[in-house]
Design brief:
The chain is an alpha/beta fold. It has 11 helices and 10 strands. The protein has helices at about 10-25, 30-40, 40-45, 55-65, 75-85, 85-95, 105-110, 190-200, 205-220, 230-240, 260-270, and strands at about 120-125, 140, 155-165, 175-180, 225-230, 245-255, 275-285, 305, 310-315, 320-325. The structure holds S-adenosylmethionine (SAM).
């Protein structure tokens, strides 16, 4: 199987790797578009007008869909892309991949519920902050009764398949403070930001699109404070804003891949200096210093969920499944 390639690789190589590794089984539309680009020098030439970091398939396809690209066979998409390239290029240059998936809260909840509260949640790489509201969503863990907020069932219901001894709680944690840091915080109250988040959801994933809208409405009614800046530069300053009487939990998901190795190592040093707990959910190759439990069955795309630097579970990247890892 091909593996993903870095941003210095030639565009056809990046697109075929995206088709075969990321899109296959996840989006037939993106798989076919990416294969189409790979064999289409005219479209590769357009994409190569972008700086290497902006040529990533997910960004280019999202930018196209943000501008109204039809969900259609590659030939139709290609003609549309060539006719609208100026707008698509401007969108790709002005935006970044900031997919925000509320369903990831189903991964966090078993950990958060086991920490003495009340909780102060600080998410680094928060995007629009949809993962800062684990207490406002309902949960259906396989084999367990639906778990609802104290105020009753939520319009956002997160389904999660479980394996192993997942400590599914019987009530949701109390969250008294939420804060975030992001290079480019998105605000779900702004129609353009919401439209961009929508474009980042892959074409066939209608359940995720519906969840995005419902979670955005919850967040818009009580927006979090997300400060703009680099997570390493602002971590301690934002952590100091949390109320001292609450337990601080710093968490991140699908974020540290954006940092280089020294940046990741610096983050680990900084987060370990803080009181409270550190919850990370990242791809297996990303986290420095965490012993990965390959002795427990997992899918090659699963993320490592770790608490204070110790792996506790294998996690589906979109929060659809969690496999708890017993103590070694
Ligand atoms: C893929 S999104 C994940 C959003 C959210 N954690 C989730 O799971 O839904 C990654 C986010 O990390 C942010 N990010 C990347 N590098 C960052 C950095 N050095 N400092 C702060 N935020 C960063 C990006 O802007 C983006 O919003």
């Amino acid at each position: 199987m091909r593996t993903s390639v870095d941003s210095d690789a030639p565009t056809p190589e990046r697109y075929v790797a995206f088709a075969d590794v990321e899109a296959r089984g996840m989006s037939a539309v993106y798989e076919s578009w990416a294969h189409g680009v790979t064999g289409d020098p005219g479209t590769v030439a357009l994409i190569d007008e972008l700086p290497p970091a902006k040529r990533q398939p997910n960004l280019v396809f999202s930018a196209a869909r943000y501008q109204g690209a039809p969900i259609a066979p590659y030939g139709v998409f290609r003609d549309w892309l060539h006719a609208h390239w100026i707008e698509v290029r401007a969108t790709a240059l002005a935006h970044a991949t900031q997919t925000n998936e509320a369903a990831r809260c189903a991964l966090h909840l078993p950990v958060l519920a086991g920490i003495e509260g009340p909780l102060a949640l600080l998410e680094v790489g928060a995007s629009a902050g949809l993962c800062l509201y684990p207490d406002r969503y309902s949960y259906r863990y396989q084999g367990h009764a639906q778990l609802d907020p104290a105020s009753g069932p939520s319009p956002v219901v997160l389904e999660c398949v479980t394996s192993g001894p997942v400590p599914v709680p019987d009530r949701l944690p109390e969250v008294v403070w939420r804060g975030g840091i992001d290079l480019n915080p998105l605000d779900v109250r702004r129609p353009d930001d919401l439209a961009w988040l929508d474009a980042l959801v892959w074409p066939e994933h209608e359940d995720r699109r519906a969840r995005l809208r419902a979670a955005a409405a919850i967040v818009a009614a009580d927006p979090p404070r997300i400060v703009a800046g680099d997570l390493n530069e602002r971590l301690h300053e934002v952590a100091a804003m949390a109320p001292a009487e609450a337990t601080l939990v710093v968490f991140h998901m699908a974020v540290l891949a954006y940092l280089d190795e020294p940046g990741r190592a610096r983050f680990v040093r900084l987060v370990l200096e803080l009181p409270g707990h550190w919850l990370s959910v990242e791809a297996r190759s990303i986290m420095p210093g965490i012993d990965v439990r390959d002795d427990i069955e997992n899918d090659s795309t699963d993320f490592v969920l770790a608490v204070d630097g110790v792996q506790r579970a294998w996690a589906h990247p979109h929060g659809r499944a969690i496999r708890w890892v017993p103590d070694p």
